[in-house]
Amino acid sequence: MAEHRAIAVATSAPENTMRHRSIGEIEGALRSDVLLDEDEQELLCATLKEENQRLNRLYRWVLAGISLLFALVFLYLGLHEIVYPFMVSTHAFIAPATSSGTIATLELFGALGLGAAALFIEPHGESLKTVFAGASVAASLVPLVSWLWIFTLSFDAFPVHLLWLPCAPMGMALLSLYVKSGCDDIEREAAELKNYIYRYKSV
């Protein structure tokens, strides 16, 4: 009889302390297939949602910062070309293939596409998100097609070292679309976690 009482106490002890466990202990309980109290499930859902939001903000800020940095570089190149034509070494290399006005225009379109990508990655309403996404892809498409056309027709050897001119704006636009979509999906999944809470109260 004493032995059976000891076993009963030992098996019920973890349940009696469930309400007092930390989030780390709750995660350990999940790995051990232990039932969680409803309050603990609420805490776990809130913690996962908060951590997900923190990571999403980090990804968005980093990507937006990179896009904005590239946008400033392209803006500088475009404005510099307007004021001092062909004075940048990259533009001087392209000079035999096209005009200064074309170079400045394509640089400014690249800056516009990158700036729209930086704005798109941040949280907005559906209407603004569509506007920024469309502006980013459309503006980035202009230098992508134009530069590749110029490079292909005007140079005997394709200038691989200048691929960043056509590819950087469109690459950041597509990367922003991918990351934004992934972050939104994870946020929806985290918000739906509460739908899976089961009714259970530890004794």
What's the count of strands?
0
Q: Biggest β-sheet, characterized? A: none
Spans where pLDDT lies below 50 across 5 or more residues: 1-20
Average residue pLDDT: 79
Rounded to an integer in angstroms, the radius of gyration calculated over CA atoms is: 28 Å
Helix run count: 7
Strand fraction equals under 5%
Supply the helix-strand structural class: mainly alpha
Which term fits the overall shape? elongated
Report helical residue fraction: over 70%
Encode the helix/strand succession as letters.
HHHHHHH
N- to C-terminal separation? 23 Å
Description:
With 203 residues, the protein is mostly helical. The chain contains 7 helices and no strands. Helix 3 (38-83) packs antiparallel against helix 5 (100-120), helix 5 packs parallel to helix 7 and helix 6 packs antiparallel against helix 7 (164-191). The longest helix is centred in the N-terminal third of the chain and has 46 residues, at 38-83. It is elongated and about 75 Å long.
Summary of the model, kept short:
The protein is 76% helix and 0% strand. It contains 7 helices and no strands.
List the SSEs and their pairings.
Elements: H1 2-16, H2 23-31, H3 38-83, H4 89-94, H5 100-120, H6 126-154, H7 164-191
Summary tags:
disordered N terminus; 203 residues; mainly alpha; 76% helix; elongated
